[in-house]
Amino acid sequence: MNTIQKRTLRVLVERLRLQESLSTWCGHSHGSLRRAVRIPVGMVGNHAAASDNNHHDHNRRSTARLTHSWTNRTSHRIPPRSSPNYLNLSHSCSVKRNVNNRHYSESDNNGEKNISTLFIPVPVKVTFNPDDINIGEELGASLKDKKAELLKVLNSFYRRKEIQRLAAENGLDELLFHQAFVSFRKYIVEVECLEPDLHIVLSDILAGAGHVDDIFPYFLRHARQVFPALDCMDDLRKISDLTDPAQWYPDARAIKRKIVFHAGPTNSGKTYHALESFCSAKSGVYCGPLKLLANEVHMKTNDKGIMCDLVTGEERRYTHPEGIPASHVACTVEMTNVNQPYEVAIIDEIQMLRDPARGWAWTRAFLGVAAQEIHLCGEAAAISLVQQLAAATGDEMEVRHYKRLTSLKILDQPLESLENVRPGDCIVAFNKNDLYSISRQLEAMGKECAVIYGSLPPGTKLSQAKKFNDPDDPCKIMVATDAIGMGLNLSIKRVIFNSLIRPIINEKGEKEMDRLSTSQALQIAGRAGRFGTQFEEGEVTTFLSSDLPTLKEILACSVESIEAAGLHPTAEQIELFAYHLPDATLSNLIDIFVNLSKVDNNYFVCNVDDFKFLADMIQHIPLHLRARYVFCCAPINKKHPFICTMFLKFARQYSRNEPMTYDWFCRQIGWPLSVPKNIRDLMHLEAVHDVMDLYLWMSYRFMDMFPDMVIVRTIQRELDDIIQEGVINITKLIRATESRSANGVTSLPDDDIERKKGMGKSADSKRKTKAKSREKSQARSYGSSDEEADGSQLDQRKLSSVSGRLSKELIKQGLLSEEVLDQLHREWKSSGMGKAKGSKGGGSGRKKKKK
To answer: C-alpha distances in angstroms, 24 versus 17, 19, 76, 230, 679?
Structure first.
């Protein structure tokens, strides 16, 4: 076939496609369109004649275009609103979109986020003509020299209220309509070879034989290319429908389950009774909130002669030497196997299903575990919600109430001074700076103390707990964060709250300071007094006298009933979303899913900010969706730069299909590592331990890419011993840190991997600034009087800059009065804070600055 034949055939094909397109949009029959758009009979049979008679057929084609344009305009132009055809046209063009529009209206009325803000425009791919033939120009006039006129026509189209109204009925709100129009206008002006049907319509309008309304079908077609979600909103809503999550677990729904709720406070024996049923069953699973608790159940069950495996995110410990799964398993709640049948299941701390970050794991375990008998242990506040969930699943439920086995007394006297501590005391602080300062002052008094906080490795926590519990050990005092609230068995006589203000994560995922809740206070205070120990009668008080009435008020309140359980989008649901929106990022898919999701009053969608943070971090790395999803589920501390850097390296190595061997891993973390010399060294070792946890977590999901889990676990135990040695000598580390701060030394330690790997001057500068701030804030002094105690408390929080926004905010919230503020000014001046400015280090610093 020669060039003329190809060209003529392409013109014919495009004309036929144009007929079909017009038939779709205008409702004409195929025959009527053939009458409107005339095709010369001899075109196919005689290519040469068609070429020679091109000029003679011009008038005939012009007549055909005018006929087609008039027919199209009169049939598809938007009639006036008063016309009875107006509603019919709107309905015929957007039956499917009306449903979506109702959904948007409902979302807006409910105050939900407008979903259209989450839709990211997709660049429209221009299809190139391989024969370089502009079919539009063959069928109509050229538009190359008419750009200005085209822009006027398009702007007129954009301003028409009828067009905006019809666009809204097709799912394009004001924002989407504007974005789609900008893309459509750019496409028309910049693309040299438009689609023939669009080219002809624009030619007709410029020639006065068309109307701007004729553009709408082509604009809508373009808008659906720019926003592919418009074509699948119903499907997306169906996928994100979370109103009946119980049906996600057919194995659990196929059996009749009995729910036994053990409700009671801390130290009431509720978990003990549940574990008796667990051990007496032929098979069972224990689902705990922490690795420490799962490990404790694993060890105790095996000590009784019952084979029990341990399964956590970072470890699989099989009792059978050949790795054959045992009949019993203790696991963290996220690792619950919902496909394995059990006789008995225990879900500990069931009230955690309200947790905004991890609540989905408890909901999944409760709804999905296929056990004949399920024992729930936790606060009575969860009973009402669990009863509603059990009614929805058709499960039988029994509630057993428990009381504390030992008494818990709220003292009328605060501690007021560290000189008043006695054996069995546990001082609870909600930040590490307080914890370090208290430990330092106790050591100066000659009193040895154990230290526990959240970022310590599990082995170090157990070592410190054992040291504190040992009656023959001289360590009789503990300083801890709220990490003691669960997971550790401690022989505590008296719990002392250093403060009642703690950092929390609000519903928006933002960190803010708030008063301790009743549930949290009871969880921590309940650690005082343990049945079967030398301290069976527990006591609780505060460090400051001003906090004691508040503590009594908090503990006197009843815990609010839990209203909803958490849910989280699954990998399968996100994959279905990605099928419909292939160009969207994972973070964007999650955003759209959460905003489109529909839940009933018993559920809520958990906070996904951490997931999105990791998704954005590795978005530039080429990964398959399932692998990307798994990476984003990794439990890491996103606040630590070194951990985030290693996370990125893992993802990049995986994308290159390069296994992360032991040698490669040791080079990245700088192994072997030495004993910490100061607090910053200790914090870095804790971060390296977390990175090892991340490697082990990945090794169970990508075994071929993380092949050396055994040897990495071995060096992790060695690192745990190094950290334990550092914590035992923590007061020496604090003194070293204070000495570095006093001497103005802010450089990173020699073995700091972040500096070695060159993470950038800006990042180092930020870390140094934070280190200075942190080290300076460790000089808190505890006096014997109320005034001194109040002053030291506020001094630690850096309220010396009282003229700033913080002091105004504290006064506004009623946490501080102007009288107390003036008193603090006087105390700071009298305590010699101004002398520091004249110190040697400070003077040299000023001299250098002047130079």
So the answer is: 11, 9, 11, 19, 73
Residues 99/205, Cβ–Cβ less than 8 Å:
no
The average confidence (pLDDT) of the chain is 79
pLDDT digits 0-9 by tens, 670-723: 999 999 999 999 999 999 999 999 999 999 999 999 999 999 999 999 999 999
User: φ, ψ for residue 497 (rounded to 5)?
Assistant: -80, 115
Mean pLDDT of 229-238: 91
**Alpha-carbon distance values, 365 to 301, 333, 831 (Å):** 21, 7, 56
Of the pLDDT bands very low, low, confident and very high (cuts 50, 70, 90), residue 119 is confident
The radius of gyration of the chain from alpha carbons, rounded to an integer in Å, stands at 35
**464 within 8 A of 426, measured Cβ to Cβ:** no
Q: How far is CA 317 from CA 295, 311, 527, in A?
A: 10, 6, 29
DSSP assignment of 368-431, as one string? H--EEEEEEEE-GGGHHHHHHHHHHHT-EEEEEE---SS-EEE-SS---SGGG--TTEEEE-SS
Question: What fold, for 245-401?
Answer: Rossmann fold (3.40.50)
**Residues 278 and 375 sit within 8 Å (Cβ to Cβ):** yes
Over residues 799-835, the pLDDT tens digits come to 333 344 556 656 655 555 666 666 666 666 555 544 4
Name the strand (E) or helix (H) holding 258: strand 258-263
Q: Which two tokens stand for residue 495?
A: 């719990």
Provide CATH code, domain 55-227: 1.10.1740.140
Between CA 807 and CA 798 the distance in angstroms is 10
Quick check: helix, strand or coil at residue 438? helix
Sign of CA dihedral 800, 802, 808, 812: positive
Beta bridge pairs of residue 522: none
* 322-325-331 Cα angle (round to 5): 125
Residue 30: count of CB within 10 angstroms of its CB: 11
**Distance from C-alpha of 794 to C-alpha of 627, rounded to nearest angstrom:** 47
Tell me the β-bridge partners of 425.
494
- Domain covering 408-556, topology: Rossmann fold (3.40.50)
Model pLDDT, residue 123: 83
- From residue 131, alpha-carbon distances to 128, 138, 168, 193, 520 in Å are 9, 13, 39, 12, 73
Burial of residue 719, with CB atoms counted within 10 A of its CB: 0-12 exposed, 13-18 middle, 19 or more buried: buried
3-state secondary structure of 344: strand
Q: Round to the nearest angstrom and report the end-to-end CA distance of the chain.
A: 85
Whole-model pTM?
0.74
Residue 241 DSSP code: B
* Cα–Cα distance for residue pair 539/526, rounded to 1 Å: 9
Banded pLDDT at 350 (limits 50, 70, 90): very high
- Estimate to the nearest angstrom the gap between the alpha carbon of 547 and the chain centroid: 34
Structure tokens at 753: 């991997």
CB 726 within 8 A of CB 682: yes
Whole-number pLDDT of residue 267? 87
Choices 1.20.1250.20, 1.10.390.10, 3.40.50.2300, 1.20.58.1080: CATH for 634-759: 1.20.58.1080
pLDDT tens sequence across 397-442: 999 999 998 899 999 999 999 999 999 999 999 988 899 999 999 9
Q: What is the pLDDT of residue 358?
A: 95
Rounded to 10 degrees, the C-alpha dihedral 726/728/734/737 comes to -20
Beta bridge partner(s), residue 188: none
- Residue among 483, 470, 490 nearest 428 (CA): 483
pLDDT of 553 higher than 90: yes
In this structure, the number of other CB atoms found within 10 A of the CB of residue 823 comes to: 14
| 591 burial level (CB within 10 Å; 0-12, 13-18, 19+) | buried
- What are 158-169's pLDDT values in tens digits? 999 999 999 999
Closest CA to 12 of 48, 38, 35: 38
